[in-house]
Amino acid sequence: MNFSFVPGDAVRAGGAMLVIPLLDGDLGDSAPAALVDADKALDGKLRAAATQEGFKGKADQSLVLHTLGRLQAERVMLLGLGARARTTPEVLRLAAGRAAKMAQKLKLTELTFVVPETAPAPVAVRAIVEGLMLGVYKFDRYKTTGGKEEKKAPGLGAVRLVLPQGASQGAELEEAVELGRDVAQATNWARDLVNEPANVVHPDRLAQAAQEVAKAAGLKATIGGRREIERLRMGMFLGVAQGSAHEPKLIHLSYVPKNPKDARRAPVALVGKAITFDSGGLSLKPADSMVEMKTDMAGSAAVLAAMRVIGELQPPFPVHAFIGACENMPSGTAYRPGDILTSRLGKTVEITNTDAEGRLVLGDILTWAVEHKPAAIIDLATLTGACVIALGNYIVGAFGDHDATVEQVLSAAKAAGEELWRMPVTELQKDALRSEVADMKNSGERWGGAINAALFLKEFVGDTPWVHLDIAGPSTSPKERGYFNKGATGVGVRTLVEFVRQRAASPEQEPARETAAAARPAKGKARSKTARA
Prior knowledge:
Blueprint: E1 2-6, E2 17-23, H1 33-41, H2 45-52, E3 62-66, E4 75-82, H3 89-105, E5 110-114, H4 121-135, E6 144-145, E7 148-149, E8 158-162, H5 171-195, H6 203-217, E9 220-224, H7 226-231, H8 235-241, E10 249-255, H9 260-263, E11 268-278, H10 287-290, H11 298-313, E12 319-328, E13 340-342, E14 348-350, H12 358-370, E15 376-381, H13 385-391, E16 396-399, H14 403-416, E17 420-422, E18 440-441, H15 449-458, E19 466-470, E20 476-477, E21 487-488, H16 493-505, H17 515-518, E22 529-532
Parallel strand pairs: 1-8, 2-4, 2-5, 5-8, 11-12, 11-15, 14-18, 15-19, 16-17
Antiparallel strand pairs: 3-4, 6-7, 9-10, 9-22, 10-12, 13-14, 16-19, 20-21
C-alpha cells in the first residue's frame, strides 16, 4: 500500500472514495472544511442525507454516498469517531479499518483520507496507516472455487492523505508512515502465522519462520532441537513435548547494536508461548475447545513479529527473543497426571493437569532468559481461560510485581492502542500450587486461575523485572470489528515495539537489574545451528 500526502483541499484530491472522519456534532456549525466543501459541491445533499440516515458522527457510524460526478472522488464516506473527549489514536485506527473494509467491499484500489485534527498530525497519520493496512487483512489462502484457487481482485494499493490546514509534509510525517507500515505488516504477518492450521505451523515451521525474520531484519537466529533441550536440562519443556511426533524446537533471536558500548548494556528479553497445537494432552480438552488450539502459539508469533520491527529500529541496547516450540499431544509417550518433572532451575513440579502445559514450557524458557542477565523480561502467552473469564475477549491481563516495569509496559500499550489491565500477583494464592510430593504443582484450584499461573511463572524469574501478559482472550477476535477480522489479531506486537521505542528514547527509565537471580550458572550448553543474516 502506497501513501502520499496532499495539501488541504480534500474535494480536489480525487480518488475513488473520499473518506472524511467526523466527531459527534461535526455536522453542525463546527463542521470541518472537508465536509463543508464536499457538502457545497453536492448542493447540501451530503448533510441532508446524513441527517436522514441518522448519521451523527458517533463511534462506529459510517455513511457512503455516490457523488454522481459532482466531486472528483466517485464516492464520499463519512466516518464517525464519537465524542471528542473519547477520541484517541486507537479510535481513529479502528475507523480507518472500517474504511479499508468498505474499500474492499466496493473493490476500490485507491482512496483519499482526510487526516483529522484530533491528534498531532504524525500520531494521526500513523494511526490511519496502521488502521488501513490492518483493515485490508484477509486470511483466505485456502479458499477455492470448484476445486480451483479463487482469483483475488486487486486490493487497496494507493492512499492519499489530506493534511490539515497549516500542517506541512516533512520527515516526521514520512517516519510516521514508515513506522505505521512496518508495524502493520509485522502484525499481519503474525496474524497469518496464527491463522495457519496446525498441520502447517508446527515447531519446525515456527523455527523456519524465526530464521526468515532473522534474515529479513539482520538478526542472529539460533535454533536447537531435542538434544539441545536435554543438554539444557529443561525437564518441564521435554515433558510437554514428549507426546508429539514433532520434535520440539528451541528458538533464540537476538539483536545486538553495532556500537560496542550499547552492545554491553543489559538487554530486554521477550518470551513467547509456542504450543503449536494444544490437545490438552492426556487431560484431553473437549472437542469444541480444541478447534481453535492452533492459536496457542500466538505469543510466539507476536514476539517474532515484534523482532522484525525491532531489527529495523536498531535500539541502543540488545533485544533477545526466547521461544520453546512444541505440541501438547496424547500418546503412549505423553506425560501423565501424577508425573514429577524437574525444571532447568532445579525445582520439581507435580503434574496435576497436562492441559496446564504452557506454564511448564515457559518456566524453563524464562529460566534460560534470566541467565542472559536482562534488564527486563516480558512474556506473552495464551495462558489461561480464567483470564478470558475475568477480562473478556479484548483486554490483556498484565501481571508483575516490579512496578516500574509494569508501568512502562502499560504506558507502551496505551500509546500503541492495545488494551491492558493490571492484575494482582498475590502470595495469598500461593497455597493453590502447594504439592505434598514436589516443590510445587503445575495447576491449582479453579478460583484465581490466571493469578495461579502467573505465580507459577514468577518462581522462574527470581528478582529480574518481569511482566507476564496473558493474551488468551485478545489473541483472536470472535467477530469483525474496526480493523479486526474474525480470527487472529496479532495482539502484543504494537505494545512490544512501543516498549522498545519508549525505552530507547528514555534510557534513564531503564529498569534496574537485580543480579541475584541473573547470576545463576548455566546448567548446560546447547550445540546449536546458527543462521546469521
